[in-house]
Amino acid sequence: MRIKVRRLGDGLHPSEVAIQVDSADGPQELVVGRDALSQDSIDVGHPVARHDRFYLVELPVETTSGAWRVWIDKNNVQALEAAE
Question: How many independent structural domains does the chain possess?
Answer without folding.
Answer: 1
